[in-house]
Design brief:
It is a single chain. This protein is an alpha/beta fold and 273 residues long. It has one domain (5-268): 3-Layer(aba) Sandwich (Rossmann fold), CATH 3.40.50. It has helices at residues 14-25, 37-41, 58-72, 95-123, 144-164, 183-191, 201-211, 221-232, 244-268, and strands spanning 5-9, 29-34, 48-52, 77-80, 126-131, 169-176, 239-242. The protein is globular.
């Protein structure tokens, strides 16, 4: 079997790292991409080659893709995973922080898709996996900017799937719910950098309450396995939500409708009415 070549962004920790390592164990040659080179070096092996770059740097992305093509001749898999979460109310999150959220979470994905698609189209083969979130289909108070970026990924992914489906290229969305990684602690650290008037303090406490179960959540291996299943399937899913909380949240939003779902969320956040 000809070795498959994969690019995984956000591979220095969490879901990205687990995905890069699992793909490598299953015979893929993986280009592990992230900003933190020292973390990438921890997983370097005969099957994993680190590339340091920021997904907001279009020229660095072009050079990385050129390097992959020049050394390996093809790109079979792109896993768009790099991202971060800027929590806070719509009023109080500075526009610079909101822009950064979209630059990384949305345009970072788009830059990589634009860079790899010409090579995949030329071979009429490939699979793109975009990591979204349970928040890609709903939102809650305090998650507005993060949810908006994940809503955008849902839209872009659905669009590009329709654009390339007759060219031998699969495009998959994977929507994790709460997963035990560095992501939630980092979200809470960033939240603490945003000044909020006291009127919003109940919302901020509600956010922390929603995220309090993160230590008991599944680890990133469950998402890495979903990626592996998607890229090895002859008919991969259009969208896969997991674990169970992600599936249930989206179903509840659809079943309850906007008003009742918002009430249920506020109950869970222990907000006053």
């Amino acid at each position: 079997m000809i070795q498959q070549i994969a690019l995984v962004t956000g591979a220095s920790s969490g879901i990205g790292r687990a995905t890069a390592e699992l793909l490598a164990r299953n015979g893929y040659y993986v280009f592990a991409i992230a900003r933190r080179l020292h973390r990438l070096e921890e997983i370097r092996s005969d099957q994993i080659e680190p590339i340091q770059l920021d997904v907001t740097d279009g020229e660095a992305i072009r050079m990385a893709v050129d390097h992959v093509i020049s050394t390996k001749g093809k790109i079979d898999i792109l896993v768009n995973n790099a991202g971060f979460g800027q929590l806070g109310t719509i009023e109080c999150v500075p526009m610079e922080a909101a822009h950064r959220q979209f630059e990384v979470n949305v345009f970072g994905y788009a830059r990589f898709m634009q860079a790899v698609l010409p090579h995949m189209r030329a071979r009429k083969s490939g699979c793109i996996v975009n990591m979204t979130s349970a928040m890609g289909k709903m939102t809650t108070p305090g998650f507005g900017w993060y949810s908006a970026s994940k809503h955008a990924i849902e839209a872009l992914t659905d669009a590009v799937r329709g654009e390339v489906m007759n060219q031998g290229i699969d495009v998959v969305l994977i929507a994790p719910g709460l997963i035990r990684t560095e992501f939630v602690p980092r979200q809470l650290e960033l939240l603490d950098t945003i000044a909020h008037p006291t009127v919003y303090h109940e919302i901020l406490n509600g956010l922390r309450h929603l995220l309090a179960n993160e230590p008991q959540s599944p680890g990133p291996a469950i998402i890495a396995q979903a990626v592996l299943q998607a890229v090895t399937s002859s008919n991969p899913p259009v969208r896969r939500a997991l674990p169970l909380d992600s599936k249930m949240a989206v179903a509840a939003r659809w079943l309850f409708g906007a008003r009742l779902f918002a009430w249920a969320v506020r109950q869970q956040m222990k907000l006053k009415f």
